[in-house]
Design a protein that fits this description.
4 helices; three-stranded antiparallel beta sheet; repeat; alpha+beta; phosphoprotein; about 160 residues
Length: about 160
Amino acid sequence: NTLLDSEEVAVLDNTKPLTWKVRKTDGTVMEVPSICIWLPPPDTESGEVALHSQEVVERVAALLSKSRAWLVSCYTAYLRSLGHGSVPVFSKLLPQVREFLNHLERASGDILIDVEGRQQLMNALRVVRNNLVACGELLRPRAQFFMTIFIVIVSFSDLG
């Protein structure tokens, strides 16, 4: 095996001062005199970009974690406020409301699994689902607001 002029190799082991183990692009592993290998200077700009990218990813992950916790808290509080007694729903929208509640329950088992307060959300969700009552067009203001939220969310979920 020989190494051609300007052939790129991956250095596998450079612990010996006189010979290094390298892998050629065809997969051949061989030892060559270390004097034959030219190592380019480190790319400090790439290192800085990688470090900055890692910081951005960590910030986004923290923001997502806070957002998920906030969503769980808001949904739990709102569902608890609805869960005392019957929850009137316009009869034509009852299937979509049930589907949304089912979807929220499935999502809480997947994307919200590690969020504190998840179990309280699940309990509030079950109470509301068990108390859904079909009604005519005239809804109490609280239930009307509840349905407006569901209509918007169901509309957005239909887009995907």
